[in-house]
Each structure stands twice: as C-alpha cells, then as structure tokens.
Design goal:
DNA-binding, homodimer, 13 helices, alpha/beta, six-stranded parallel β-sheet, six-stranded mixed β-sheet
Amino acid sequence: MAKRVSMKDIANKVGVSTALVSYVLNGLEKEKRVSRDVAEKIHKVAKELNYKPNRIARSLRKGSTHTIGLIVADISNPFFGQLARVIEDEAAELGFTVIIGSSDENCSKSVALIDSFLDRQVDGLIITPSEGCSKPIRNLAENNIPLVLMDRYFPSISTNHVILDNYAATYSATNHLIAKGNTKIRIIAYKSTLNHMQERIRGYREAMKANGLAKEVAIRKVRYHSVKSDIEKIIDDLFNEKKISALLFSTNNLSISGLYSIRNHRLKVPDELAIVGFDGHEVFDFFQPPVSFIKQPLEEMGIESVRMLINSISGKKEIVHKVLKPQLVVRQSSG
Amino acid sequence: MAKRVSMKDIANKVGVSTALVSYVLNGLEKEKRVSRDVAEKIHKVAKELNYKPNRIARSLRKGSTHTIGLIVADISNPFFGQLARVIEDEAAELGFTVIIGSSDENCSKSVALIDSFLDRQVDGLIITPSEGCSKPIRNLAENNIPLVLMDRYFPSISTNHVILDNYAATYSATNHLIAKGNTKIRIIAYKSTLNHMQERIRGYREAMKANGLAKEVAIRKVRYHSVKSDIEKIIDDLFNEKKISALLFSTNNLSISGLYSIRNHRLKVPDELAIVGFDGHEVFDFFQPPVSFIKQPLEEMGIESVRMLINSISGKKEIVHKVLKPQLVVRQSSG
DNA sequence: CTGAAAGCGCTTACAG
DNA sequence: CTGAAAGCGCTTACAG
C-alpha cells in the first residue's frame, strides 16, 4: 500500500500548520475564522494529494470511534439478518459503522465478543443477551457503557432495552386458537430462563387459564443446540397420542423445524393439528395451508435500538424501555 | 464511563517504564528478557486494575487494525447472511474482526462503504462487487489494498477472487433438464453484465447448443429492484403461452420469487413446468414437489475468502483465483 | 535487564 | 487570522 498522505503533508505543501488543515477539513473554517485563500488552498491540495483522513488517529484523540458493536445470536438466522440490515442502515444514516458478532446463545462467546468490541473502543453495544449471561451485562451497565438490550433483557438489571410485548404476543395467539375451538393447545419453547421465552410462555399460560383451560397447560421444551431431534420427538409423541389439537411455536427457528416434522408426518393442518408460528418466514407462505403467525415489527426494533443507543452515547442518562406491539397474522393453519 | 486504565497507570504503580509493561503484556518477556518478578508484578497489577488494552492506540502505532471490511449485496438475504456467518467465524479464529455493509447492488453505496471502511483503516476487504463498479475496484487493486472479490469478479482487473464455477453450474442443470425430456427451457437471470450472471447464462446457452437446442435459447431478464413484478410478468406470459416446459433460476432470490408466482398460478410441477433453483432455501423443501437446485459450497467460499485475504494482508503478493464446484441436488421438481 | 524518548495522525487549548 | 505544542495510548529502536 502506498504511503498514505497525512495532514502534515498537506500542511507542508500549503505552508501552514496542521491545525489549519484540521480546521478546514473539518468544516471549522468559519468558526476558527480561517482566511479564504488558505482554506481554498487546503481544499485544493487535499484533493490533489487524494487525502483520506485516518479515523483511527482521530478516534484515539477524540476518544470515540463512531462504531457500534452488535451482538446477535446468529447472523445467519434471517430474523437477525433482517434486524442487522435495519441496524446497519440506520447506523449509517447517523454516521456510525457497525461491527457484528454471533454469540450462538453462548455466554462465553458473548463475553469474548464484548471484550473484543470494547478493546476496539466501540462507542456502544446493541446486544441480544444469552441465557445466564447477566453478570457481564451488569458489568457493562455499571461501567456506564452505552448499551441497548434487544429482543430480551434482564429485569434485574437496569439497562435500555427494546423488545416485543412477548406476553401479549402469545396471549393473543392462544386466545385465537381457543376461539377456533382448540382446547388441547401446547406451546413449543426453548428450554431457557431468558425473559422473552418466559414471557411467551406466560402469555400462553394466562390465556389458557383465562379460558378455563388451566389443566391443559403444557409446555414442551426444546434445547437450542438440538432443536431438530427434540422437535422430532415432540411431534412423534403428538402423532402417536393424537391428544393435542394445536401447537404454538415461540420462535422462528422452532416454527420452521416444527413444520418439517409436521410435514414429514403428513399431519393434516389445521384439522388434525392447528398451528401458529412466530416471526414470519417464506416457508410459512408455502406450507399447506399457509401458516398463521405472530409478526414482530423488525424495522421498528432495529431503528429504535440504534436511536436509543446513540442517544445514550450522546450522553443521555435516562434509561429507556421500549416495548413493541406484535401483530397476529391469521391465515389457514390455525383453523 | 469510568476513566480507562492505561499502560502508564500500570507502569507507575509497578514503578517501571511503559516499555516493560508493553513487552510483558504482549508476551515478549522472554524475547526481551524481562526479569521474572517485574513480569509477575506487571501481570498482577494489570489484573488488579482490570487493564484493557486500547486497540485503537495499538492500531495507530502499528498501522494495522486486524479488522476486515465485508461488503455484500444485502446481509438480510440468507445467502449472504450465511456467508457472513462463515466469514465472521473464520476471521475470529484468525484474530480478525469484521465490519459489514450492504451495497444493494448499487455502485455508489459500495463506494461509500469502501471509503468508510478504508478511513477506518481496515486491513483488507472482501467484496461482492456491484454492476458497473469496476473503477473503484481497479483503484483498490492498483493501490495494493488487500482485496478478495467474492461471488463475482471483473475479468479485466487482476484481483484475488473466490467464485463458483458458474458456467458448470448452469451447464449441468440445463443438461439435466434436457435429459429429463425438456426442450423448451428458459433461464431467468438478472439484467446484469456482472460476470457471474453472464457465466450462468453462458452455461445454459452452451448446454442448449450442445444438445441441438440453439434455437430454443431464450433468456428472460429481471431487474434487481423490481424482481417481483418482472417475474410475475414472465410467469404470466408463460402461463398464457404454455410454450415453455422448464425454467432455470439463476439466483436464490429469483428462485423464491419465481416459486411464489408459480404457486399462485397453480402450475403443476414438473408436469406443466419443470424447475431448477439456485443456492438452496427452506422454501425449496416445502414446495410441492421439492425443488431441485444448484448448491453452492458456502462454507468453503467464506473460509477461502478470509484465508486468501489474510494471506494477502500478510504480504503475499501472488494473486489467487479460486473456483469452487457446484453440486446439482436433484429432487422432483425437475422431472 | 531497564528507561527515556520518538512517533503513529490526528485535535484542540493556548498564545500571539 | 495563524502557529507551536501537547497529548490520546500504545510500540519499538536505541542506549546503557
């Protein structure tokens, strides 16, 4: 790589100090009352030499990098991919660059990413925290590192967050299934103490109770790292017992894996089994019949997260909690 | 944010110079023959003060950031999402962080991203270049900026690249469709001069020719920013004329959009229309019947790109071209 | 074995 | 209106 040209090179060529160059190139020529011809000359020479500012140097000096770190569970999951895209665009709009890492729902990976991003002096972090990973998050909060938790959060830690109204999401979906005549409704959830999961389960449970179906409440749990086999087993059971009339999936991934199993067993939806999925996916459209689902406002979630974070970076002390409304998209799979 | 502790703080507390601290914390204590107790003390104090290195300062001094910039067409497209994930993992493995941007197949966005990443002193770039965007790429190459083009490249510019054998991909898919008795085969492609598109078209054309079907060659083109309506129109025509027996899709996105239209028209696949998709997607599994497709070795593509780039960053001058083999996954949609 | 010092490329108070 | 200089937090040749 050819030697990069610095402000010094420009300063030398024009015959002024680097201070002037800095002022002019940062648009402070008026504020600092730099003379017109000097300013013009500096601009001209900068262009001639094809000057590119070194933001690393600037960052070191200013103590801010205009970079935000984004930690999601898995960037290859379209839910997070779409979220990342929104975040990238909004951040760019506001002059920030984003560096991305995938935690695989694993706390030690999350910590490694947080450390690495902090070493790189990100101005703030947007994180979908992993299970049992509250300590490092608390640490960030206590050190006043600008932070927004997204999708999930820890009620015991005071941080900004933007999440779905998870309780409302499954409550309304369960209600909908009941209205369609289902009573033996099960929710398929991750085996996780994370807040969003617990709230989704609670929404289901409370809706069942409210409809006098407390006895039918049953939560089928799936481990994050063996979704396929666990779901397979659940659907097998279901297929053998024929005691269940409806299934409510509590994430995107669970829905899709479940749909594979349901299709393989040739279960008739919704007659033999009614279903409601989560998040939305092209597969929901192609499944026979099209799958009803709980839709998250991804765009809003991404944009809000970025804005909230940048507010915090700008020094706003107030902690903000944003809870977004889900939308139940009813199609034929739910009866 | 509490004031960060620096090497100076450690040096002061231990009573040595920052040079020693730097040596010890970078594991050069042996090479620089630092005495045992000093080394131990430094480690101890570093831990006590919870010292975190400032990589920005290090980067400024060393002139390298251990960061790579990745520019894809759209991170929310699962094809790129999966690629990004592989790249992230491989980069992390090798001690690099990745910053990501989406170009939307738009040259000026690409340029903006390149500039921003370069200002941030990335050590190198992995890019899926946009149409007509050869000039900025040539610029990078001429300035010896470590660079790997991925998925597509410009034959006229000498750069590293890792791509699919696009010609072989569509050649074999077309051959397969012909072997299944189809003659009126059309390819659906983007209206793009980009190399990968041209090669996919060429593979189709040559396979047709080789089978005496030169007269049947017809390429249906779709604009990137109006895929849905353009494809809708193509399928409409097809539906009215009933003159086409098979469709070969040349990307992931095109396949999925096409499948929506085909389904809406209730075309019987493969009897009324045989199809072969590209890249693979869950939708291909749920479509009735399951869709045959050309599979790209994503894992390999991502890993190779990172390794190639890091070799180049490490000073390797040799230009490398890697061409990966596609795999035709035959299912029921192709006859 | 260790320290003093320069320097990476910026920004910014300070002085004139 | 402009310049000399300090300093962000590191690394590293140099000298002893």
